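Hi all, posting the design record for the shared folder.

TITLE: backbone redesign
STEP: 1 of 1
STRUCTURE INPUT:
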């Protein structure tokens, strides 16, 4: 039973997450040689003020 965990900033729609789930499930099932029904995907959404890259928060105004 493959489990895929995806962490991303908040703001994606249910439609976008559904499309990701379909694509990831298809590819994982094919590569891992398992049934699509056994692939589990967990979406963890993080607020922008709790995500930093290169020392800058995603909410910092000087972020490029």
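Okay, here is what came back for every position:
SEQUENCE:
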């Amino acid at each position: 039973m493959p489990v895929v965990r995806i962490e991303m900033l908040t703001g994606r729609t249910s439609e976008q997450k559904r499309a990701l789930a379909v694509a990831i499930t298809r590819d994982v099932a094919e590569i891992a040689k398992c049934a699509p029904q056994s692939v589990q995907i967990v979406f963890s959404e993080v607020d922008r003020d709790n995500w930093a890259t290169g020392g800058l928060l995603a909410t910092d105004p000087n972020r490029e």
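COMMENT: The helical segments are 14-32.
Let me know if anyone wants the other runs.
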